[in-house]
Amino acid sequence: MSMFIWEEKYSVNVKEIDEQHKKLVSILNELHTAMLGAKANYVLLKKILNELIEYTVYHFKTEEQYMVKYLYPKYAEHKESHKNLTEKVLSFYSDFEKGKKLLTVELLFFLKDWLTNHILGEDKMYSQFFNNKGLF
Q1: Domain for residue 75, yes or no?
Q2: Residue 111 located in a structural domain
Q3: Domain containing 63: what range?
Q4: For residue 125, what is the domain's CATH number?
Q5: pLDDT tens digits for the chain (136 residues)?
């Protein structure tokens, strides 16, 4: 059962970024499924969590490169939002690796809520800007 269902309302009307958002949703759902499954174990959860972190960093880099290329006026604020989430998740991941924290449903819902709010809020704000620059 998926925790996060992609809907058209999440589209920022930039194909590459939408595809990356869909991939993030897919990884988040994979993590959720693994946590619910009988085969959930530290190695599997760590692998999926690591994939989620790596892909998120890759995605943020893509967005930020377009923002720099097209001189997006809210680049600094958007980059700061990316930095804050990255720091939070890396801190959690470090604690998880050291056995200080468990992977919980609360973390999954935090990530889902952050991704949802980020796409519908901050990312939607650049949609028209990028489209006006010819990026679809």
Answers
A1: yes
A2: yes
A3: 14-132
A4: 1.20.120.50
A5: 689 999 999 999 999 999 999 999 999 999 999 888 876 788 998 999 999 999 999 999 999 999 999 999 999 999 999 999 999 999 989 988 898 888 888 888 899 999 999 999 999 999 999 999 999 9
Is 6 within a domain? no
Query: In this structure, what token pair is assigned to residue 18?
Result: 């939408």
Q: pTM of the entire structure?
A: 0.94
At CA 118, angle to CA 112 and CA 120, rounded to 5? 100
CA angle 69, 71, 76 (to 5 degrees): 110
Give the total number of structural domains in the chain. Answer: 1
